[in-house]
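writing this on my phone so excuse typos. first protein, seq and then structure
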Amino acid sequence: MRVFVFLNGRQSSAQFYRKHYESCREKGDAVICANGGYRLAQQCGIEPDLLIGDLDSLHDEQIEKGIEVRRYPRNKDL
């Protein structure tokens, strides 16, 4: 099983990530998005299995129904 993790930050084109994902994925692989990495997955047309983080850069209405969400407090520096 492979796990594809989408993060926020400097990115190549969505086409680059989509092509890599399609060439490597196998049945049973998982997709995890951390915070703003969810937007990149959306641009690639990839639905994550899990969205994790404080999600302060996303609005709840932007998150598709059916995606497991693990939300952590913004005050995470402790």
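second protein below, same order as before
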Amino acid sequence: FLRHTLSSLARELPADFVRINRSQIVNTASIRELKPKSHGDCIVTLRDGTELVVTRNHRLALKRKLDF
């Protein structure tokens, strides 16, 4: 059993993965839509319809990966 932080895991993944909040990492290829939410947060909708919160602390990194 190995323990790693999510930050260290995110650094080891390919460039098309990005951390979107404290506990989730997504593949940018699976993102269908990005919608603004209150207080700087966003909602990301994946191709399968799943909606996830992107916190304001991780929003800029996601937008850079998506070339917004």
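The first helix runs from residue 6 to 12. thats all i got for now
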